[in-house]
Amino acid sequence: MSSSPALQPVTNWKIEQLDDLTGKRYLITGANSGIGYEAAVHLRRANADVIVASRSAEKGAEAAANLARIPGSGVIELVQLDLASLDSIRRANDSIRDHTDGLDAVVNNAGIMQTPQRQTADGFELQFGTNHLGHFMLDYLTFDLIKARSGRIVPVSSIAHHQARGINFDDPMHADDYSPTRAYGHSKFANLMYGLELARRLEAAASDVISASAHPGYSATNLQKTGPTGLFRMIYKVSNALMAQHATDGALPVVLAAAGNEARNGAYYGPTKRGDSRGPVGESRIAKEARDEEAGSRLWSLSEELLDIKWDVT
User: Fold this and answer.
1) Concatenated DSSP letters of 2-37
2) Residues 232, 183: contact at Cβ < 8 Å?
3) pLDDT tens across 81-96, in order?
4) 254 is a domain residue
5) Is residue 98 one of the residues assigned to a domain?
6) How many CA atoms lie within 13 A of 35 on its CB side?
7) What pLDDT band is residue 4 in, cutting at 50, 70 and 90?
8) Which residues are catalytic?
9) What is the total count of domains within the chain?
10) What is the structure's pLDDT at 245?
């Protein structure tokens, strides 16, 4: 069964609680920088094998080389992946299978934030298409590899999901009323709602795979530099310096969800102080709208329809 009733709610989780991960293999999207890279560092130090999935081959290669210099016995490999292109996701899936016949976790970390109104290569709104649909497709394609190791899927959401009040099913691409901030919150809400819906489906299927979601709180990363423009970029420059925690700390909830013995199906981990922006890692607050099972099922069906797939988790 995917659920673990014996596991107690997590409070004040620390990296020292992580087991030796020799022989375990983790795929992390966006592992070339920020939260993804710092999660890879933590896993590397625990002797895990890490597959760095990066949109930029050059930046990915640099990150992989840096990770290889960190003490640890695991193998570091690189896969080029652009989540804004379904063709790229399919090629990455083929490449991943050249590296391994099983994955202990796929960490849906990569993301973009508050971009101007743009579309993915396949015509989806860029933030929803990259942050949610791209990961949904990747998880679907690699699910047999995850099942092979009774592994985990780790959707990475954000405290920004609280800004959304549900999925805009009438206009999921925000074609009629685009706001960079609203579209970002919508995409991160979708990440969490998807993680919870996936957990319910895994539970119903009596699967050994678990879906454990996480968020990094307010952590200083390139996310605040590469997407936002104008006033937002200036604000983040100041707030990052004054309020944000280091990405090393922000990565801890992600590592817990991906590799901690304490992680359970359907949980959501993150910092637990200052509005869940930083502090001890544990069970994080979930907007009540994200728990809506009917809406979660509808999001799943919408994702399948948009991607032209049918995903049965059994």
Assistant:
1) ---TTPPPP-SB-GGGPPP-TT-EEEEETTTSHHHH
2) no
3) 999 999 999 999 999 9
4) yes
5) yes
6) 28
7) very low
8) 184
9) 1
10) 66
What is the Cα–Cα distance from 310 to 88, expressed in whole angstroms? Answer: 19
Instruction: Find out whether 272 and 284 touch, Cβ atoms under 8 Å.
Output: yes
3-state helix vs strand vs coil in the chain, percent to 5: 45, 15, 40
- Provide the H-helix boundaries in the chain: 34-45, 57-68, 86-99, 126-127, 135-148, 180-204, 223-226, 230-242, 247-250, 252-259, 293-307
| 284 within a domain of the structure (yes/no) | yes
Q: Which amino acid is at 112?
A: I
Range of the domain at 150: 15-305
Model confidence, pTM: 0.91
Q: What is the CATH number of the domain that holds 97?
A: 3.40.50.720
Amino acid at 105: A
Distances (CA, A) of 72 to 45, 56, 65, 125: 5, 25, 13, 40
The pLDDT of residue 237 is 46
Instruction: Of 195, 192, 219, give the one whose Cα is nearest residue 286.
Output: 192
Token pair recorded at residue 54: 């990066």
136 within some domain: yes
